[in-house]
Design goal:
six-stranded parallel beta sheet; two-stranded antiparallel sheet; 8 helices
Amino acid sequence: NERTLKIARENPGFVFAAIGYHPWEIRKEEVEGNLDFLRKEARNCVAIGEVGLDYRARVKKDLQKEVFGEVIRIALQHQKPLILHCRYSHRRVFEMIAEAGVRKAVFHWYTGPLDLLEEIIKAGYYISATPALTYSPPHQAAIKEAPLERILLETDTPVQYKDLVSRPKDVLVSLRGVARIKGVDPAEVASLTTRNATGLFGLDAPSPFR
């Protein structure tokens, strides 16, 4: 988080920071310190994330939900959108943010049920497309179902996707995957997803697609 904020400060208008508290990283003795960091630095970022729940993680579910609930409160207080990690917990994450009144959120690398995706879209939330589109049927199905107006592009760098160790430039892999699945020109995907991102995160970045 500190490194991300530093890079954003050094590259204004080109790099925009999101800071989070990933459920894999929750340690009971560190919770208050990490939450205090988010409270202090939330004003210096454009989003809070990744945050959420992971029901395959070793961290106890009750502790994850307690931390996520507090993170939601921080995001609401500072009017920041959430970037959501919801592995094997899609429904519960959706319920928690909806019940709390969160209006802006993106479900990172969505592979969950399509009936829930319909609710996510209806609620005005987004999902993101990753290079996993090259091989993941559940991810492909979600991107096929979601309207372009509710899709963002990402890489989850430096995650490894089979033979690809992703880098920021591999957002083009995500872009081409969306274009192929949707049957539209990559330039249209670039234009719409850029508009989606600038709107969701409140950016005023120059864009070649405007």
